[in-house]
């Protein structure tokens, strides 16, 4: 197996829908005349996924993490460029399992591979490192930015929060769950569901949006900072799954547990702001995209993020999202 | 120092020329309506650069390796998306030195940073891994592909071949060189010179082109394979620097040495094909772009690459380019 066989046999078939990819026989690809939204996300073994995670799921998570960024902006994904740095001595079966995952989610999202680079580390212990640059078409209404929220806007989030973080804890055996809960939580960690339909329905309606990847509190902080406001979040309103509910019930301090849940990463839900006058439109958009949406707070004067209890008192939060450079 | 400070303070200033980068406060960038050529190259510590290479030079090599891909296609670079996976515990000074290198070569090539992702490995020993997705404007005459060479076309290469490989050997102390030679060879390895002007001048003239990154023989093989022909290369005609000439003179077997020189990677010269009727035009293009160009062979019937001695007899070549997956 050499590098060129791998490209021709494993990756080139993934470009079938992309004439501009030139079957990966050239060093470049050609994208035809149109406005493009572009995003780039890295996934690193031992940081963003577990070294033992099945490689088809890792491939799909790579696609979904990037698609989620486009979804929050209201964009429609078209294709991607892929960079893989494998550990030395990687086996062909591993590459093929990875490519199988890519193929599955290319079909799910109707996207194609356009190009990239594949190489290997110098050692067997160096971790698999993945990079994807995704591009898509912006919505007619314009991109939903992080920075457009106004004073008094409502804050909403899709789906449920904290499941992916609990799934990671379950896979690491840090907490015990029932078999059913463990399976559903692990799936939330390994195979997120980007909210493409909701993101498209929110274009022109949401004043600001972000996908929740760093954690609900951290990402609310990003919208607040970019918009020059403070995010006030009602802890009890944060939507949670049955499994997360059971976990909270088993914790000593309910407020601390809620704060933890809101600090886990990898939810890939959409957190967005919209004026109170648009509440009915938000409900319509949620229904039209068959996505649960919950109002969880408000944008107020100030800066940062406040997590509030039933009485409006601030809950101490230590965790404000995963920071790869925290020392 | 946290992840968001790094993005805001170290990387956001690099997007000053790119309004579509939104100052890196969003997860996406916007590229305006135009045809784009896109390429992606990875650089991994211990594989594509030495762990002790100064980080400003590593940054510039990352830019130059990608610009070189665009140059060979006749394209004009516009900007890039950057992915960095740092070893755990990286210091701010290291990031700043890296950003300094990016800034220098952004000015050299008049390009801007448009977006990306920055993260860190879980361990201090995991190697710095860099990914860049570059985009540019295709030439009016259309991209110069790998596959357009015709039977009987001449094969040319710019600059001199093998210096970067000797530079790497010098840095690793595998061979001894004079101080002056060592310095010039090391620079060829650490700071390649993409042939942008030549690539632009060859658009519509060269029938096929590639930048020499895998090694002259391997890259000639890529053109040959994509064009359905065989590349016959005159070993003595391969252009070499004074330093490479001294090295060859010190080797026991001159033919073996020439074959090694043609198998080293990282030259970042342009290897291209053109019909014999266009020899004068090639000379004009070389002069106009102030780039040395040497005719080194022909495309013949058959497949693969032949390295020929003065009598046209084939020189045995073991090395046909660096393969990251060779076991």
UniProtKB/TrEMBL annotation, chains A, B:
> What is a biological process (GO) this protein takes part in?
thiamine biosynthetic process
Q: Where is the PurM-like N-terminal domain?
A: 26-137
Q: What is its EC number?
A: 2.7.4.16
Query: What's the superkingdom here?
Result: Bacteria
Read off the SUPFAM superfamilies from this record: PurM C-terminal domain-like (SSF56042), PurM N-terminal domain-like (SSF55326)
Tell me which residues bind Mg(2+) 1.
41, 117
Matching entries from CDD domains are given as: ThiL
Reaction(s) catalysed by this chain's protein: thiamine phosphate + ATP = thiamine diphosphate + ADP
- Can you tell me which residues bind ATP? 116-117, 146, 213
Instruction: Please tell me where substrate binds in this chain.
Output: 48, 266, 322
Query: Which intervals hold domain PurM-like C-terminal?
Result: 152-306
Task: Give me the residues that bind Mg(2+) 3, please.
Answer: 27, 69, 211
Name the positions where Mg(2+) 4 binds: 27, 39, 69
Tell me the residue numbers annotated for binding Mg(2+) 2.
41, 69
**Keywords, sorted A to Z:** ATP-binding, Kinase, Magnesium, Metal-binding, Nucleotide-binding, Thiamine biosynthesis, Transferase
Q: What pathway is this protein said to act in by its record?
A: Cofactor biosynthesis; thiamine diphosphate biosynthesis; thiamine diphosphate from thiamine phosphate: step 1/1
Q: Where does Mg(2+) 5 bind?
A: 214
Role of this protein: Catalyzes the ATP-dependent phosphorylation of thiamine-monophosphate (TMP) to form thiamine-pyrophosphate (TPP), the active form of vitamin B1.
Q: What else is known?
A: Reaction mechanism of ThiL seems to utilize a direct, inline transfer of the gamma-phosphate of ATP to TMP rather than a phosphorylated enzyme intermediate.
**What is the similarity comment for this entry?**
Belongs to the thiamine-monophosphate kinase family.
Protein name according to UniProt? Thiamine-monophosphate kinase
Species, as recorded: Hyphococcus flavus
